Amino acid sequence: MLKLVNLNYGYTDGANRRSILQDCSYTFEDGRFYTILGPSGSGKTTLLSILAGLDSAESGEVWYNGEQITANRLYHYRRNQIGIVFQQYNLINYLTGIENVELAMTETDNAMPKNRREIAYALLEKVGIVRSKAERPISKLSGGEQQRIAIARALAANVDLIFADEPTGNLDTATEQEIIRIFRQLAEEFGKTVIVVTHSETVSQFSDERVLLENGQLRRLSPAAEAITA
């Protein structure tokens, strides 16, 4: 589904040139839950931004469903193919949870049902938000509840790719486990490709595939734990 071919990315810091990605290639398949790990400063968030079309590589290619994501296709890709879950949730605080999810349904060209509110309630219920909480302002909800709503919002446009940047970084252990369960369910039951950048070994241990970004390259890790310097 999503393929990277010889991506290169870097920046200049004073007189020094730092390479983040160096001829980086990888293929992400349908219906799998991936975690990307790596040392601090290795470029994990930069890579996720490139995958999501929020930043561009200096050279190389990103392919989605057999088509290269070029500059003139970025708008369509971002609007219709991907959902993003941020560590800080990025919800609209003066709206309720249900209103945040409904709003996402208006920002896509994908076919949406007429009964949007009922579908939004159903999505929220799938991630553990009952109606009474869905109708509360975002500011009245806990961090874990806000992250669940952020996941439902990412799904609301009926996309196939879900990207998440440190989505459990602000959550306690019990809530982290619940978010992991949701990501696994999205991949296994709904066929979504879920790609999560994380420092958490707990999150990575429950993913289908653990990928290490180090020295500008992506490398699949074995199922057994390997030492990673966070």
TrEMBL record:
Family recorded in the similarity comment: Belongs to the ABC transporter superfamily.
PROSITE patterns linked to this entry: ABC_TRANSPORTER_1, ABC_TRANSPORTER_2
Stretches assigned to the ABC transporter domain: 2-230
Protein name: ABC transporter ATP-binding protein
Cytoplasm keyword on record: no
Transmembrane region(s): none
Species name: Holdemania filiformis
Example GO molecular function: ATP binding
InterPro entries according to UniProt: AAA+_ATPase, ABC_transporter-like_ATP-bd, ABC_transporter-like_CS, ABC_transpr_LolD-like, MacB-like_ATP-bd, P-loop_NTPase
